[in-house]
């Protein structure tokens, strides 16, 4: 068994330890200059056989130092931490990480670092560094002028300062001429074929507003019932409409028949009619902002119910229900961001050059997602880490009495750069599903179709991971990164198939390097989506018949342990099949001779699509300073690959559980991670990580809620 020692960025000399406190070994103080997590062998614990054959640290890609003889040790904070914490790390995380490109890049450095993302609410940075290519054309005259600086700034300002408002409305009436200006602005919107498909129904009647309020309330309740507990708690606090508090409500409709059957541009895309009306809404919203009027868009309606309640013609589509009124103030940030419900996605995530995936802001060279992500992975923040240890000492409990949970809460502080750290809630388990060509070798008793069938089960809510997620209040997010069969579109399924299953790695590489990188990107993008959607913890999950064979191969490559020692019985196989499975792994390793220094190459040769995606999730989570709770053997294999790509990604990892698969023990030892739960589980799907989630949340909550000796008036020892 091993224990994780959390070490910081730029640590300095350790403070003198107090009596009874765990003491950091001297080696750690010397060696922790770079690594985020330093695995430390725990000598008095049960010896684990694979430790004996572990590769010497010197040949590892990771800079982490293994301190073989140390006691169970917990590092002390550096005397004067070098890095400042970010006080509101939560709201800023997404935007902020983009501006820190100077971290470790293991392969080659990107040709050009991405430009920093403008702070939300700030003016955009000056224009592109290189001039856009000119289209050769006879120069006749100067192009039509844009606005002067002040006018342009006014236009940009109104866009920046437009807010969706639900709180702080005033009852002041809206003068007719003001409302008229706002409606005129809406009416100048662009529209498909100039069909101008909108109508505006201006509602002032208290009775109608009360009817609409009741309809919205019913939908709110119905929506709340669908939420995982972690989300439902947050949602309860949110205000989602101000129908009764605003003097004017405006219904914006779209007439899909307006302009007749030959409306230009609507021929193949009927949705252009409601899109046009949505543009009218944006115009209205901006004009209202310029008048000092707040607007709140309410979409908690059943459309047909609404059409009937308002007596609208049946052929109309309702595009928007808007609450309009004067307000006390316009918040700088979206109300959902302020409430911690969501985060702003940086512009650099969504601008592609020429083809999708070549991300680049104008004037930048396109950069690849993996390089950008790795560049943003930072060590734990020394100051927050130091504060966490200090706080643990002052909490009303004997020093060290929370054992491993103290280490977790310090890690969470260092990761988030704040102490106490945010409670990792809401959380989402990302279940990546993929099939494996090596299934053909008879390494499992289960038919391959079960992968797709289990995906349907996850989406239907009937699997063990659903039950555990329900219990702990987490969201289940299912990603098809490589299931062999075609899966029907289903709510909750992210269709991200890179290829329909890997090839049989006993006869050739499992996949190409490009496919491997694409699967890693799927994981990174999943991490980005889940974190931007407000999740504060990511859990790894996976489904893929035959994937323990793949995990064994990966673990063998990264740990150097013989396949015979780490290849387990997966879903339960007999001796004969087990012997074949070991032989299959052995043959694959002989065929490919994968080089652990080239982790992407290892994944391509003997990996799985879900393993590569989990690598991406770990790297993505680490780059967004969000904890990643690892599940079992496949997550362990992925974490080894992630560490080989970016050693500091381990700073975000928490081992949820120890699987019954022998390979998992080898992986955890190599990673230096101590599992929180040890129940002989061998299911996957994220089940072990889900069981561990409340422990991780408890570690953070204790930091928030446990009194200190001073505050509680308790005498110290
Ligand atoms: C199509 C659409 C529907 C929306 N529906 C709701 C809603 O029902 N309730 C709500 O509180 N906000 C709603 N909003 C507002 C968004 O939550 C808001 O635009 C987003 O959080 C960003 O904040 P900002 O508009 O202040 O920048 C809606 C916005 C749009 C564009």
From TrEMBL:
Functional pathway: Nucleoside biosynthesis; alpha-ribazole biosynthesis; alpha-ribazole from 5,6-dimethylbenzimidazole: step 1/2
Keywords, ordered alphabetically: Cobalamin biosynthesis, Glycosyltransferase, Transferase
Biological processes annotated in GO: cobalamin biosynthetic process
Entry EC no(s): 2.4.2.21
Reaction it catalyzes: 5,6-dimethylbenzimidazole + nicotinate beta-D-ribonucleotide = alpha-ribazole 5'-phosphate + nicotinate + H(+)
Domain Nitroreductase: 160-326
Matches recorded under Gene3D superfamilies: 1.10.1610.10, 3.40.50.10210, NADH Oxidase
Keyword Transferase on entry: yes
Listed GO MF terms: nicotinate-nucleotide-dimethylbenzimidazole phosphoribosyltransferase activity; oxidoreductase activity
Chain intervals for the UniProt region annotation (Disordered): 74-149
InterPro entries assigned to the protein according to its UniProt record, in alphabetical order: BluB, Nict_dMeBzImd_PRibTrfase, Nict_dMeBzImd_PRibTrfase_bact, Nict_dMeBzImd_PRibTrfase_N, Nict_dMeBzImd_PRibTrfase_sf, Nitroreductase, Nitroreductase-like
Regions that span the bilayer: none
Pfam assignment, any one: DBI_PRT
Pro residues biased stretches: 113-129
Compositionally biased residues, Low complexity: 81-112
PANTHER family in UniProt: NICOTINATE-NUCLEOTIDE--DIMETHYLBENZIMIDAZOLE PHOSPHORIBOSYLTRANSFERASE
Family to which this protein belongs: Belongs to the CobT family.
Function according to Swiss-Prot or TrEMBL: Catalyzes the synthesis of alpha-ribazole-5'-phosphate from nicotinate mononucleotide (NAMN) and 5,6-dimethylbenzimidazole (DMB).
The protein, known as: Nicotinate-nucleotide--dimethylbenzimidazole phosphoribosyltransferase
């Amino acid at each position: 068994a091993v224990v994780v020692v959390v070490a910081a960025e730029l640590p300095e000399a350790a403070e003198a330890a107090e009596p009874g406190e765990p003491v950091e070994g001297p080696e750690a103080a010397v060696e922790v200059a770079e690594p985020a997590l330093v695995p430390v062998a725990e000598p008095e614990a049960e010896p684990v056989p694979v430790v004996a054959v572990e590769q010497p640290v010197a040949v590892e890609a990771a800079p982490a130092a293994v301190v073989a003889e140390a006691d169970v040790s917990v590092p002390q904070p550096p005397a004067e931490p070098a890095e400042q914490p970010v006080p509101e790390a939560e709201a800023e995380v997404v935007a902020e990480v983009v501006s820190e490109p100077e971290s470790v890049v293991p392969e080659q450095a990107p040709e050009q670092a991405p430009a920093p993302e403008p702070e939300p609410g700030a003016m955009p940075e000056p224009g592109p560094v290189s001039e856009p290519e000119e289209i050769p054309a006879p120069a006749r005259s100067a192009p039509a002028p844009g606005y002067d600086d002040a006018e342009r700034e006014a236009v940009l300002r109104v866009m920046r300062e437009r807010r969706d408002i639900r709180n702080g409305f005033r009852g002041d009436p809206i003068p007719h001429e003001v409302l008229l200006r706002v409606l005129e602005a809406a009416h100048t919107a662009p529209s498909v074929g100039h069909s101008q498909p909108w109508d505006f129904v201006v509602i002032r009647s208290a009775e109608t507003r009360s009817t609409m309020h009741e309809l919205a309330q019913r939908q709110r309740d119905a929506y709340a019932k669908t939420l995982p507990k972690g989300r439902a708690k947050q949602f309860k606090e949110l205000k989602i409409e101000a129908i009764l508090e605003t003097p004017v409500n405006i219904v914006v409709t779209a007439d899909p028949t307006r302009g007749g059957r030959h409306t230009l541009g609507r021929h193949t895309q009927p949705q252009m009619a409601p899109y046009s009306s949505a543009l009218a809404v944006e115009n209205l919203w901006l004009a209202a902002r310029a008048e000092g009027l707040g607007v709140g868009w309410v979409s908690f309606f059943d459309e047909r119910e609404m059409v009937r309640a308002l007596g609208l013609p049946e052929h109309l589509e309702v595009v928007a229900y808007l609450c309009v009124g004067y307000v006390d103030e316009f918040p700088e940030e979206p109300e959902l961001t302020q409430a911690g419900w969501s985060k702003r996605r940086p512009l650099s995530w969504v601008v592609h050059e020429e083809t999708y995936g070549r991300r680049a802001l104008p004037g930048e060279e396109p950069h690849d997602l993996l390089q950008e992500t790795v560049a943003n992975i930072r060590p734990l923040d020394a100051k927050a880490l130091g504060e966490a240890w200090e706080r643990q000492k002052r909490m009303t409990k004997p020093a060290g009495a929370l054992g491993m949970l103290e280490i977790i809460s310090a890690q969470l502080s260092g990761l988030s750069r704040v102490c106490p750290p945010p409670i990792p809630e809401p959380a989402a388990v990302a279940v990546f599903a993929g099939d494996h060509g090596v299934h053909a070798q008879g390494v499992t008793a289960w038919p391959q179709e079960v992968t797709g069938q289990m995906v349907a089960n996850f989406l239907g809510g009937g699997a063990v991971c659903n039950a555990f997620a329900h219990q702990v209040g987490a969201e289940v997010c299912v990603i098809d990164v490589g299931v062999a069969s075609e899966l029907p579109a289903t709510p909750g399924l992210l269709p991200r198939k890179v290829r329909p299953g890997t090839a049989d790695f006993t006869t050739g590489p499992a996949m190409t390097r490009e496919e491997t990188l694409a699967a890693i990107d799927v994981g990174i993008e999943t991490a980005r989506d889940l974190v931007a959607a407000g999740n504060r913890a990511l859990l790894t999950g996976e489904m893929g018949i035959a994937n323990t064979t793949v995990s064994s191969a990966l673990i063998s490559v990264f740990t150097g342990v013989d396949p015979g020692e780490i290849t387990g019985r997966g879903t339960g196989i007999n001796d004969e099949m087990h012997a074949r499975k070991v032989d299959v792994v052995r043959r694959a390793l002989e065929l490919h001779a994968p080089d652990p220094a080239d982790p992407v190459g290892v994944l391509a040769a003997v990996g799985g699509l879900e393993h590569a995606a989990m690598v991406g999730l770990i790297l993505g989570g680490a780059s967004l300073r969000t904890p990643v709770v690892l599940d079992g053997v496949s997550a362990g294999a992925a974490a080894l690959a992630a560490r080989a790509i970016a050693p500091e990604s381990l700073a975000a990892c928490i081992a949820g559980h120890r699987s019954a698969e022998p390979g998992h023990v080898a992986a955890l030892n190599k990673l230096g991670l101590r599992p929180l739960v040890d129940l002989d589980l061998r299911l996957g799907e994220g089940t072990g990580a889900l069981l561990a989630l409340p422990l991780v949340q408890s570690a953070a909550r204790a930091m928030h809620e446990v009194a200190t000796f001073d505050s509680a008036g308790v005498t110290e020892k």
